[in-house]
Amino acid sequence: MNEHIIAVIKQNTPQAQIDPLPNTLIIGARSPETAVVVSDYPYGRRLRCVMRYWLETKKSHGTRLVSQTNNPKRPGLVWNKPHAGTYTQGAVVLHTDQNAHVKERAFTDFNLSTSTVERANHSFQQVENFERENAPAFTETDHEFIRRTKNIITTCMTRLQTPHQKTELNTTCPVCKNYYTTCTGTEEPPPDTPTQWQTQLAKSNALLF
Ligand SMILES: [Zn+2]
Q: Which of 39, 74, 182, 189 could disulfide-pair with 165, CB 3.0 to 4.6 Å?
């Protein structure tokens, strides 16, 4: 359909990734030159065009999808203004779904839940799965986000598993940071710390007399 346009794209931007197969992770589509190109895309009611997609990362904003069509009403290859989506803070990659449609796939802080040990474990597994499946398409920013996220979960896990006494009614626990209903502490004070402390204190007091 758009053979002549595709020929021009191949010549102008040899790194363009034309018509990837369904269910494919897209690697390196980071600029108009390296974009993934869909050679046959609807344009209005009856025309067809070429569509290209790439990801753009801006520090402290995140990553966003940019898409751009050519104008089939004009002779030759004329690109329309690119359309930029909303920034996502997290690890973001592009892939094709079962219909070969180009989609974003993201892991963000919204995917995290760390209020219980089970949830934190589950979140950690999700991060690892996302990393395993998408790392080939990661930028350094994505790797950094995944590292940071794993550290956060590990810190939460340590907090949740620290032996402590359950926090008081209507308070937020200073140890596990949960509200009293979900505090991971026990009803009794933890066996080790305070009692050991008290015995040592008693011993040293005894020495004074
Ligand atoms: Zn607690």
A: 189
